[in-house]
């Protein structure tokens, strides 16, 4: 996961706000399912990260409550 985050941040360059950076990390995390089918084995990879984001940035990620 760290390699994917690093690649996304390097490709983007800079972020105007912290929210923009968080959105990119969120989208990269959601995009780790290669087939887009939501298979359980892939969900195990990104679910802990989404939970950590939801706890840390609860006020900034209202959509996290619906996951």
Write out key terms for the chains shown.
67 residues, mainly alpha, 3 helices
Layout of helices and strands:
Blueprint: H1 2-12, H2 18-30, H3 40-56
Helix pairs in contact: 1-2
Helix content: 55-70%
Distance between the termini: 19 Å
Shape: flat
Number of helices: 3
Strand content: under 5%
Tell me the total number of β-strands.
Answer: 0
- Give the SSE string: HHH
Number of domains: 1
Query: Structural class of the helices, strands and pairings?
Result: mainly alpha
Radius of gyration: 12 Å
Mean pLDDT: 76
Unreliable runs, pLDDT <50, ≥5 residues? none
Biggest β-sheet, characterized? Answer: none
Organism: Nostocoides jenkinsii Ben 74
Protein name: Transposase
Family: Belongs to the transposase mutator family.
Function: Required for the transposition of the insertion element.
Plain-language structure description:
The protein is built from three helices and no strands. By secondary structure, it is mostly helical. The chain has one domain (2-66). Helix 1 (2-12) packs across helix 2. 1% of the residues are buried.
Question: Nutshell version of this structure?
Answer:
With 67 residues, this protein is mainly α.
């Amino acid at each position: 996961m760290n390699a994917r985050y690093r690649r996304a941040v390097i490709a983007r360059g800079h972020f105007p706000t912290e929210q923009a950076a968080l959105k990119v990390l969120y989208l990269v995390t959601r995009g780790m399912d290669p087939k887009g089918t939501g298979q359980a084995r892939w969900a195990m990879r990104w679910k802990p990260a989404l939970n950590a984001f939801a706890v840390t940035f609860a006020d900034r990620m209202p959509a996290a409550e619906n996951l």
